[in-house]
Specification:
nine-stranded mixed sheet; 20% strand; globular; single chain; alpha/beta
């Protein structure tokens, strides 16, 4: 059986123009029988359309902030660095992927890109914009290979069915988060301070975004591995 080819959107070093990919993503995809393919940032729509036709699934990875103009806001004082090239490529890529119904997985920045691309928005800076009685550490102070808070899964969601759990222990390294969901998307997990931690699209073959980083957890946490397994299985169909 041919292994699924998975397109990954790369990180972009705006200082020197380099693109990068965390080996944690590559190892997780290899573990579930996939071949990772790092996408180019500088690609025409024609090139992206060809890649979408030939690859079997797409993983929108973590990275810097999305430019606020892309969801209709001014730049918040605590917004971080952005990559115009990456924003452009990912927002152009998603509609082409969805035209063909190819599986989609978003991680950290990825969940935010999925929501913005479909018409939703995000909190530009959770610590300063969201009032919370107990400020959960969304930028954890320790190793990413260990979880720092829990999320509650929405009953009946795809994520609950994949994990077989009602709650998950997750890691966290973000200062932005999904705020208003785009049309057609549903929240499937919440943090203890009521931030949306996962989303999905009912009726689509496979469309899941998570705010945490399962690529750091899968070796020790079976629920994180199950997410990659479910994504790989969808990409084989």
């Amino acid at each position: 059986m041919k292994k699924p080819l998975i397109g990954l959107t790369p990180a972009h070093d705006t200082d020197n123009g380099d693109i990068k990919m965390r080996p944690t993503f590559l190892r997780a995809l290899k573990e579930v029988g996939c071949i990772p393919v790092v996408m180019p940032l500088e690609a025409s729509e024609e090139d992206l359309r060809q890649l979408v036709g030939e690859l079997d699934g797409f993983l929108f990875t973590g990275g810097p902030d999305v430019h606020p103009f892309l969801f209709g806001e001014e730049t918040h004082a605590h917004c971080g660095n952005v990559s115009a090239a990456r924003d452009q490529m990912e927002l152009s890529l998603l509609p082409l992927v969805m035209e063909l119904g190819k599986p989609v997985l978003g991680v950290c920045r990825g969940i935010q890109v999925l929501n913005i691309a479909l018409g939703g928005d995000i909190w530009q800076d959770v610590p300063s914009q969201v009032k919370r009685e107990f400020p959960v550490a969304h930028q954890q102070p320790f190793d990413y290979h260990r979880p720092c808070h829990r999320v509650a899964l929405v009953r009946g969601s795809l994520l609950e069915r994949i994990s077989g759990m009602e709650t998950l222990e997750v890691n966290s390294m973000h200062h932005q988060a999904v705020r208003d969901l785009a049309p057609g998307l549903l929240a499937s997990a919440y943090s203890p301070d009521h931030l949306i931690e996962a989303l999905e699209m009912p009726g689509y073959p496979f469309f899941v975004g998570v705010q945490w980083h399962p690529e750091y957890l899968w070796e020790k946490q079976k629920e994180a591995l199950r997410l990659f397994e479910a994504f790989a299985e969808a990409c084989r169909k």
